[in-house]
Model the fold of this input.
Amino acid sequence: MSLPALKTTNLCRYFQLGPQEIQAVKNVNFEIAKGEFAGIVGASGSGKSTLLNLLAGLDTATSGDIEVNGTAIGSLTRKQLSAYRATQIGMIFQTFNLLPHRTALENVEMALYFADLNKSDRRSKATLALEQLGLKDRLNHRPNSLSGGEQQRVAVARALVKKPEIIFADEPTGNLDKENAHQITELLAELNRSGLTIVLVTHDEQLVEKYTHNAFRMDFGSLQPYSGGTAK
Ligand SMILES: Nc1ncnc2c1ncn2[C@@H]1O[C@H](COP(=O)(O)OP(=O)(O)OP(=O)(O)O)[C@@H](O)[C@H]1O
Ligand SMILES: [Mg+2]
Done:
């Protein structure tokens, strides 16, 4: 059997807030196979973003391990971790996280700063990624002159331009209307069919049921297989 794309072992992330310990991610053990479209649902505050940020190397676990394509993320040096984030994974955030004073094209180009490319190659790759997302006529727009759906497509282009192996999407459709939400999810499904591993976090159980192969429910920091319907 091939290596899983992703595997966690007893993963925990606790936050200390004064005397209070918040167990945002509690002993999470799960695996995602290469090429899978995985979904994670769960109530607000259940720990979904905390888990995704750990997987994406944006935060450090309190204890436990994460392996991505056989590499233990926790054992990487800071430099290796930056390289991991810059080359192997793409992250799509609920709030897009685009730089407001940069154009669509510049936002996407920035994802390539760590790649060994000169400026004109970065520009042509970023242009192509935006064109593929239907934003050919929006290259020089700043985020505040783009619609929500367009901003999210810029964010998707930024995640894709480096040709990652895994895409982590944290509520990518949470701020979009139904039509744009559908378009973005269809796009993720298409990317998955072309071989990318996708981990989608969403409140929307219909999306999980329609699109994902393998789904989980997060509940007070614990992760269980999704068994359909609402837990409570
Ligand atoms: N930096 C932090 N310091 C302290 N507590 C935190 C921190 N980040 C998250 N938490 C807490 O951890 C818990 C999980 O938060 P998280 O953002 O992962 O939830 P979520 O499932 O993504 O929620 P939502 O669906 O609303 O986005 C919450 O109780 C939150 O208040
Ligand atoms: Mg969240």
Summary: The mean pLDDT is 92.
